[in-house]
Amino acid sequence: MRYSVVNDAVYCAPCVLFGPQRQDTKEKTFSLSSPVTDWENLSRCVSRHINEKSKHHDNVLAATEFLRIKTGENSDILESMWEIFNARIKRNREVLSCIIDAILLCGKQNLAIRGHEEKHSNFVALLHMRAKDNIVLADHLAFADPQKKYTSPDIQNELIELCADQIISTLVQDCNDSKYFGFMSDEATDCSTKEQASICVRFFDKTTKSIREEFLGFAEASRTTREALAELFLEQLELKGIDVDHMRAQGYDGAANMSGIHKGVQSRIKERIPGASYIHCKAHNLNLSIVHASEEPLIRNLMNTVQAIAFAFDYSAKRVLFFKESLEQNAVVREEIDRRQKLKTLC
């Protein structure tokens, strides 16, 4: 019971705070939810208020439980629900971490994720192996809703794309930290007969004090004119977050469309970035050197002889065994061979 000095009346505090705002007129009960000033019949009012038909007992229990929660004696239902929610988040993150680790392992080891069948794929096999030592993952694989296991091909592709974005973001940040960089590209036709252009950058890593060459991805080249390729290269670099104005070198093959001084891609890029000097790709130089050297009869005959010798031993187990036995009989030759690479490996 509480006394109001302002109203000079008494009321039931639990019923005022935790009872219904409106009293149901159909109920045959008496309520002290509103102040009472009938002092002569106060005892009878209180008796009628706390009878079995009244909601007084429920309101008192609600008030008591409220005080226990506020004092920390009992836990709040919202707090309990929040703890369950946080535990579920922690569990899902642990499961997702295991799934990402399996995808990254397949990528690092160049393993096919799916395999011949989805149910018996390398990805699923890695998860089940990991589940032997991880109770949370084992419970997830065994009892989770099939549509919420995060192991479908769509989820795998989405995670791969997210990992790729993170890797490219790190590489771009390293390139921007170096400030100046060189750009390299080459085109090739894929299995779907689409022209794909590689996007690569070369820069000096200030942390490791070394030159790095990083591959940032492929870009489909629908047109191979110098204007289209130059626009494609600059657009791809800008989309990835690289400041193209800091380009100081560009390397391509020796094709006129790429290396032309007046009508090549390199001249088109130099119109916008004068400091981007063109350098012929060394890998293409080596390839061209081998092609031109093979035009000489002496070199061509030498390569044909080496190829014929390799074929003679490669397709005959008897010849290889006889060759090894002959070498083992000569101590000088055997010692010399132990210190050298095999001819086939060297070639």
Automatic annotation (TrEMBL):
Protein name, UniProt field:
DUF4371 domain-containing protein
Report the Pfam families cross-referenced here: DUF4371 (PF14291)
Source species:
Mytilus edulis (Blue mussel)
Signal sequence: where?
A: none
Q: Which residues form the DUF4371 domain?
A: 93-263
Q: Which PANTHER family match?
A: DUF4371 DOMAIN-CONTAINING PROTEIN, PTHR45749
